Every structure is written in structure tokens, then in C-alpha cells.
Amino acid sequence: MTTLLAVEDLSLGFATEAGFASVLDRVNLSIERGQVLGLVGESGCGKTTLASAILGVLPRHSVRIAGGRILFQGRDLLTAGPAFVNQTIRGRAITFVPQDPFTSFNPVFTVGAQVMEIMKWKSPRRAAPDWVGRLPAFLAPYPSPQRRSDREAVLELLDAVQLPRPAQLLRKYPHELSGGQRQRLMIAMALLPGPDLVIADEPTTALDVTIQAQILGLIRRLASERNVAVLLTTHDLGTAYEICDAVNVMYAGQDVESAPVDKFFAAPAHPYTTKLLASLPRADGSATGIPGEVPVMIAPPSGCRFHPRCDRAAEQCRTARPSVEQLGGGHWVRCYRPHRAAP
Amino acid sequence: MRRLEMILSRLVWFVPTLAGLVVIVFLISNVIPTDPVRVALGENATLAQVEAMRVKLGYDKPLAVQLARHFRDVLSGNLGTSIYSQRPISEDLAKRLPATLELTLVAIALSIALGIPLGVVSALKRNSLLDHAVRVVSVSGLAIAAFWLAMQLQFLFAMKLGAAPLNSRIDGFGPEPITGLFIVDSLLSWDMESLGSALSHIALPALTLALPAAATIVRFTRAGVLEVINSNYVLYQRAMGMPPGLVVWKYVLRNALISTVTQIGLIFGVLLTNAVVIETVFDWPGLGTFAVQSILQSDHKAIIGFTIWTGALIVIFNLLVDIAHSIIDPRGTR
Asked: The pTM is what?
């Protein structure tokens, strides 16, 4: 397996009225070709920010990138030309499944029009159209032979995501579809350009519990069938357990632990991870919380940001952040005093 | 087929709307403390002549009877004759309608062509120098009295620079009449001389009318774009690497225009109102100058005739706006 995407020591933050918020602090992450990686953390831990940073859609006027690289197939997306990334990477090699399928469709266009617009610009069978310095994009032609063959591909994929009567569906407006149908469409739209990596940002949070399992199963199956890597952000360890190959845990803008899914659930090493797993409701309905609160990003704790809530914290945890420690087999942790599996 | 239903229900409401207009205008004209008969007959008429005229025109009857007669006449399509010129009112209105229609349509087109792009650009470049400049101009456009602006434009462009004619609608006889709209007619008959003359004459009054209308459109378009630009569906298209220009001018704009289009319907009414003043300043031979004359002469039937016609224009235009609305935002009509 080769590394498809590697985020190296990425630090960034936002200028806010209250001051500079350091949202990502030297975060590392790597995904291999065809791998489903779960990016797990509580709300506000920076996982959506990381996903947006990879997609390059953070608000330009307020974000400050302090350092690090986002290497996609060896190319740093942070320094590559924005027009190049927009035409050949975003929407082609890297696609996106949004969190909320209800508001992610434009309400006044049919879903068919929106799907076909993706195909017009991002069809895998055509090179990226060079729209710089030519006609305004909304006047660009869409020759009908191309449109017809693209439509065939769309109908095929709608069938693959188990949407019945696809031709009829394409004529509908977003509000005429259910949440599950919309998210299936979103998944189809993410796969249409033939991507290497799909970034799915909490793709099931907005859906009914019964639909959630179906959508997750669909993502898992299509990723395996098509050898597409998926970066799935979630706050739900159950989701991660069900469909991910590996898990990356974040806490308050820092990465704390990463492991293949079996090692992760069998032998969690970081104190935060162990507490997180212990906080899952047990069969008898009881649950254990983690004392304390998620820190504010404007003045985060020094060193390891988890130390105020950690019962294993020592003096060095407060002064400097631990470096990555390899535990073998793709399992690493950032902790001075991790839980060690019994030998 | 909800769109057809909407159009039909609007057409059904057409009649009561105009009937209400007739009642209101009839009552207002009777509240004005002038005597139309005396105005029409002049200072030297004797009391007997005035009395005879009053009976002849039905002004001796109670108000309710007069109103009922008005209704009877209006329903039979007869707006009556002017008490002053003795010409049929419908004929006068029909002759003047194209002038007003041409003026207001050019003004609307101008304000849309100016207002929508400026609104989008100032939303995209929020708080930039351009945004502030557009804001100053558009607030001024709303605050400045139309007749004052008209005279300033006349002074600057017609008197000082000689760049445009001072008043009237065209030099010479105008193009061969087909629609009555000089710009359209001169294009149809390929009469370039008339076209040039018509365009130069319409420039100043249309600009005067268009400025406050464009100001409203700028404000609503800007607000509409700002409301939509941070929505999830725009974020989605950006994340999928769609061309930024396409996202703004096709997908954002269509959503932003939903409230702007409703405003354009209201603006048309304001334009017709302003046209009354502007036509007078520019000596434009349209419905507005007719209305001013009729009011000054207390010509009740002419005033009511004018009101019915402009009322009908506004109702028709708003129906067109509603159709445009249902095309831009198909959610309500499907």
C-alpha cells in the first residue's frame, strides 16, 4: 500500500474577535490508497477544519496557516497553484460528501441539473477543461454527445447507490427527496469523477438512525469495490468500528493516537482514547464520563492539551507536547505515559 | 400545473382589484374641494350655465348614484369623455400609453442591468472601496427627489454639455407607427435616424427614473447574495472544485434574485408614480402628463381613467413578476 494523502505537522488557526484561535496544532495524518480512515473526536476538536483544509475551502480572510504540509500524491496542496488544484484535484482526485444533505443541494435547481453540472466539469473521461481566460464559465458549452454519455454514467452510478427509478429522480427538486435519498445522491456525486479520495464529513449525523447504517454500509462497500480511499470524520466510535480500516483520534486540535481498527479497540494507548472508549454506554445502560471540559482554542493548555483532564499527567505533559511514539504495526501515540498492552 | 392555477387566480382577482381602485379614486376626487364644472366652464360662466352643466354631467345626483354610474360605464368599457377637451378618455390614454410604457420599460431594464451586477460585486467584495462607493450612490439614489435630479441632469447634460436633448420624446415625426414604442418601431422599420433621436431623448428621463430603482435592486441583490454565499450548497460546490464564476453567477445569483424579483414588481409601481413627475419635467407625452393635466382641471373621469389604466398595468406587471418568480424559484409551484 502506498501513501495517498499525508498531512504533516499542519498548524492553523483563525483570527476571531476574542483573539487567535489555534484550531490545529501540528496534526499528522496519512491515508493509504483504498483505505477507510476514521477521524474521530468530539465536536469542536478540529476534524471538520482538517477536512476543509484538505479540500482547501477554509475561509480565506480569517484563516492563518502557521505551518505544515498537505501532501496529496506527493504534491503539497498548500503551495500548489489554486487554479490548478481547483481544476485537477478538487472534485476530481479528491471529492466531498457533506455533513448535511438537506442544505447541501441548491434548492432552486433540480438534482439532475446539479449532478450534470458536476459531470460537465469533472467527468473522469475528459481532461480538466481550462476555463481560465476563456468564456465565462456559465456560458461554456456542454456538447450533447458528451452529455448523453455522462448521463449514462450517472444513471449507472445511481443504480449502484441503490436509488430506484433514477431517471425520474433526476427531474426532482431537492426538497422532494428524503434525507437518505439525498445522501445516496451525494455519495454518487462524490464517486462520479472517479476520485482517489473521498472526504466524508460526518455523512450520517443528519440522518435517521435506521438510514445511518445503510449509508455507512454503502460507503464501505463502494470504497472497497472501487478502491477509493475515504477520510470519514465522526464523533461516533461505533461508526468508526463498523466501517473503518484505521482510526485517527483528535483532541482539542491535536492528534493523540492512530491505529488500525482492531488494535485501536483492543489496546488503546492514549489516556484520552481509553477514557473515550470507557465512556461508551455499556449493555446495562451505564456510562462513565470524562471529568472536566473541552478547552477553549483561544488560550489552550500548554503541552499536551489533554493534561488538565488526565489522571496520568506529569510535569512534562504541561511543558512540552510529546512526540509521536511508534508502537508497531501502524499504531502510534503521542503520550509520555501511554497505556502499554501486556506483552 | 400549480403555475397555471396561480395565473388564473390572479386574473380572477384582477376585477375586484380594479373595482376597489375605482371606488377609492372616485371618493378621493370628490374630497378635493374644487368644482370640476366651474373649472371646465371658466370664470365667466353664469350660475345658470353651471347648473345646466351640472345636471347634464350628473353631478347633481347623490354620490352613490354617481359612483354606480361610473361602475356601469367602466364595466361597459366606456371611460367617458374628458370634461375639458370633450375627447374620449380611452382614446387619449391609448395614444399616450406607449410613451409611458417605453419610458418605464427602459428605466426598469436600465436599473436591472445596473443594479444586479453591482449588487453581486459589492456583496463579493464586501466592505471594499467599491462596496462603499456603491452604498453611497445607492442611498443617495433613494434619498434624492426625482424632480430635483431630473432638473440637475437637464442642466448638466442638456444645457451645459449639450449631450442630450432637453425634453420631448423625439425630433421630427418619429418612425412609422407599429407598436407606438419609438425604439422598437425604428428598429422594425430600420430607421436609424429615428432610433438615434429616440434613444437620445429617452436617456435622461429613463436615467432619472432608473437611479432610485437601481438603488433598491442593488441593496436587495447584495443582501440576497450575502445570505446565500455562505450556505452549505455553495460550500459544497466550492469543495467540488466548480468554477468560482459559475458558482456565483449561476447558482448563487438565482437564489439571491428571489427577493430581488419581488422587489422589481413593487418598483414598477414606484416607477409609474415617479413617471408622473418626470414626464412633466421632461415634457414627455405619456400618461403622467395626462394625469397632471387632469388633476389640475379636476377632470374626475380622466383621473379615474388614468388610475384604471395604470392600475391594470401594475397588476399585469406583477403577474409577470409572479411568473418570473415561480420560474426562478420553482419550489412553491410544484
From this structure: 0.85
